[in-house]
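Researcher: Here's a chain I'd like modeled. Treat it as a single chain, no partners, no ligands.
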Amino acid sequence: MYGEYELIVATKEPWRLGLGIGAYKALVATGREAFVKLREAAGAYGELLDLLKAHKWIYIKLATDDGFRAAAKQNKKSITVAGVVMHLELVSGRGGSLVAKYFTRNLGKALAAADKLKAAGLRPNIVKSGPNYVVYIATADLLRLAERDGEIRRAIALYLAEKAKDGTPRQREIAEKILRRRPFSIFQCLSASSRSEPRRSASSAGGYGIEA
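Model: Modeled as a single isolated chain. Structure tokens:
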């Protein structure tokens, strides 16, 4: 961040605000200080921006508030979909993809979670993994959710950015591939429907494929 960002203000008297750049521009701050200045400039309007959950305001807070950033880092691997808390995960199969999973040892809870997701227009699957039932939604559903839900869009963007930077070699490869095809940037998230369809088995419970 440091040195990469500049806060420049157009003014008739640039020398009053900072280092003059040209005839009518002043360089007010660079690097992290630029974000600090932006947050200070918001003043009381910062409370309104908090309520609105404005995405650019959140990025300013991530850059300037250590506590806010720590909380965001702790929660960025999970999303809430139709009242179901699900964890994001990169999977290696079929070229690599991003899924969201809900874990429980209770089949009834798994089916109830799947019902909620289905009612929200999604296509959940249930698999058996050791002692757990795992309800998951595939990349196509996640991208559709990201198109209409800013919180989910942000969580996916942060998760992919983290894995592209600090993940295992395979995680970096998958995250970078998804980011190239569907770029989640700091100020926008462009997504397209994935062509991949989740695998379903012939056996079922409550209308959902249960894969062993």
